[in-house]
Design a protein that fits this description.
Number of strands: 20
Order of helices and strands: EHEEHHEEHEHEEHEEEEHEEEEEHEEEHH
Largest sheet: 9 strands, mixed
Helix content: 25-40%
Shape: globular
CATH architecture of the largest domain: 3-Layer(bba) Sandwich
CATH class of the largest domain: Alpha Beta
CATH superfamily of the largest domain: FAD/NAD(P)-binding domain
Structural class: alpha+beta
Radius of gyration: 21 Å
Length: 390
């Protein structure tokens, strides 16, 4: 077995599979992806049928990047023949004059800064366009036509398959034990032996701080167990793609949902509302209180969305204290590049993979990633108070 590669990617979920793909396009057989579980596993955060992809975001640091996410996925789709992105349009809304109406202002401002088109509409217009909604109070809403879903399962599989086409190797079921940097490279000690590379890309999700411990680094990641629920609505036609959009309701609980896709069912969740766990102590058991919260909200605002519960599925979020991405090299070990998606990165997975490949191959990237440095208070200040609402 070959044990030396120019580039090794540690963690082959959404971002890691993207990094392996974009690296292999230029470095071919000198790319190795190491994954502690099976490829396409359901233990982390890059899984399931659908994740939201959107131009809308809460800060210009992200709206400067969001248009490029579609381009990166389109490159993979063209090369693989697999469709990952399905546009649906979106409605993001909050109670007009309420405590979270400011979210709508912030999102609109971030889109304005990037010249992203959108419409600002009221409750009557939302219900005119989508009669599925029952809005009994004034709302402030943003309609954006380019929002859609990215199929995480297909995206990961297409990244991996096409990386292999370019010569990359993947080692599933291979747990990393320690990292040993040296001048010009890194030794990666695993349960299957030691592998060596010139540049190491770490995309380990909820396991990031565990992996970094052996080199004395830490992102101060909070891991939470989140969940999504599928409902076997009898009103399938009302919630088909093209008839119903992605929705996001901004409040203390941020409710969001999808049209029918992947399963013959609708899907909804509450963002960043799960219990704090570790990657090892998490369970796969749904939280019935959160199921009740989402069902109560849906019954009031989109009653036909509901039906018999098909199932609830859990996943992990890995969030730095400010819930912003980390995309940087380690200060003391520039041959190690680390990326953390902060529990909202699947839409960016292929783009982040491209960025990481450029950092590894070229030492820089064409994309504006300066805000996502390790040298910021959320990472360096142990007293930084976590803020996870976005």
């Amino acid at each position: 077995m070959k044990t030396h590669y120019d580039y090794i990617v540690l963690g082959c979920g959404g971002i890691g599979s993207g990094a392996a793909y974009w690296l292999a396009r230029r470095a071919g057989a000198e790319v190795l992806g190491i994954e502690q579980f099976a490829l396409g596993h359901h233990n982390g955060g890059s899984q399931d049928h659908s994740r939201i992809i959107r131009l809308t975001y809460h800060h210009a640091d992200y709206t400067r990047l969001t248009p490029h996410t579609y381009t990166a996925w389109a490159t993979l789709e063209e090369e693989s023949g697999v469709q990952v992105v399905h546009k649906t349009g979106s409605i993001e809304m909050a109670l007009k004059g309420g405590a979270y109406n400011k979210d709508i202002e912030i999102y609109a401002g971030a889109m304005d800064a990037a010249n992203i088109p959108y419409e600002r509409i009221d409750a009557d217009e939302v219900m005119k366009r989508y009669p599925q909604f029952r809005l009994n109070a004034p709302v402030d809403a943003l309609w954006q036509v380019d929002t859609g879903l990215a199929d995480a399962g297909k995206g990961n599989a297409a990244h991996i398959a096409t990386a292999r086409l370019h010569g990359a190797t993947f080692l599933p079921h291979t747990k990393v034990l320690e990292l040993h940097p040296f001048a010009g490279g890194v030794d990666i000690k695993t349960e299957r032996g030691v592998f060596t590379c010139k540049k190491l890309v770490i995309t380990a999700g909820a396991w990031t701080d565990t992996v970094l411990a052996s080199v004395g680094a830490k992102l101060r990641v909070t891991v939470t167990q989140e969940q999504v629920t599928y409902y076997a609505t009898p009103y399938l036609r009302e919630f088909a793609i093209g008839r119903f959009p992605i929705f996001i309701w901004h409040d203390a609980n941020v409710f969001y949902g999808f049209p029918v896709y992947g399963e013959v069912a609708t899907k909804a969740a509450i963002d960043a509302s799960g219990h704090v766990v570790t990657a090892d102590t998490r369970t796969f058991e749904p939280n019935p209180e959160r199921e009740k919260d989402i069902e109560t909200w849906l019954a009031e605002h989109i009653p036909h969305f509901l039906g018999p519960k098909l199932y609830t599925k859990t996943c992990l979020y890995d969030m730095p204290p400010d819930r912003n991405f980390v995309i940087d090299t380690l200060p003391n070990h520039p041959q190690i590049i680390v990326c953390c998606g902060a529990g909202h990165a699947y839409k960016f997975a292929s783009l982040l993979g491209k960025i990481l490949s450029q950092l590894a191959l070229d030492g820089s990237t064409e994309y504006p990633i300066a805000p996502f440095t390790l040298n910021r208070p959320a990472i360096t200040d142990p007293n930084f108070k976590p803020v996870f609402h976005i």
